[in-house]
Amino acid sequence: MDSAGLERTAFEINLRHAVAREQLEVHFQPLVDGRDGSLRGGEALLRWRHPDLGLIPFRRFLGAAREGGLLGELGDWVLRAACTHAAHWPADGMHAPLLTINVAIEQVMQGNLAERVQEALRDSGLAPERLELDFEEVVLKEEHSRIQSTLEKLDGMGVRLAIDDFGRGVSSIPRLKRYPLRALKLDPALVRDVGVREDAQAVVEAVACMANVLGLEVFARGVEGKAQQAFLCALDCHLQQGPLFGRPMSAEAFAAYVADPAKFTSAS
């Protein structure tokens, strides 16, 4: 095995022990109403504080986690940790902040996701209606009764269900209505090209129109500028997330932000 292979193997071995060694952290990125900037929730984002490499975002070790069969274990950890944090967020006016968590197809296929979610909600005290699970778009393409059953159980519990990064792949659009979904989250690549490429704007507008017909909310991730914000609001895509509104922050910093967004913004 060459040096690159040895490094990759060592990386994967260390990842397997990250939970036991308490090296994982959950950070949160604000989800806001693009019309007035008011906080509506936070997306849970997994981070690995590697002893040598520092803080590593999930996208950089997703491949290793997937290849090593670790997505179920890591997903369970994020679910429990994020629900525990969110249960202590203060309500922002009329809206108790929504917690959104990404879910991999592997977590669905292991067969006990609904039970894991129920346990996390019970142990944390978080109300089911304050939790949204964002599924990979691949769930729309897979034919498996386990997917249908799992989504129906979660919906029956009162948990919100959404499709993440919509528009990245070729979706099975009829299943958008077949499954108990409440929202679509636009692929950040589409949002990034709003105001730059006409085809991207056309796709975003088409998705927004389709979602409206199906009774689905549309969330936009990756919003970087005021022009994107205005274009999306004009399409009734009010729930937005991205650098324009705030980057991911530690659980402690996000809790302070939830308590007083204006003070946090002025302090930063």
UniProtKB/TrEMBL annotation:
Full protein name: EAL domain-containing protein
Upper lineage: Bacteria, Pseudomonadati, Pseudomonadota, Betaproteobacteria, Rhodocyclales
Species of provenance: Pseudothauera nasutitermitis
Residue ranges of every copy of the EAL domain listed in the record: 8-262
Any Pfam family matching the protein: EAL
InterPro entries assigned: Cyclic-di-GMP_PDE-like, EAL_dom, EAL_sf
GO MF, one example: cyclic-guanylate-specific phosphodiesterase activity
Database matches in PANTHER family: CYCLIC DI-GMP PHOSPHODIESTERASE PDED-RELATED, CYCLIC DI-GMP PHOSPHODIESTERASE PDEF
Organism domain of life: Bacteria
Residues passing through the membrane, by range: none
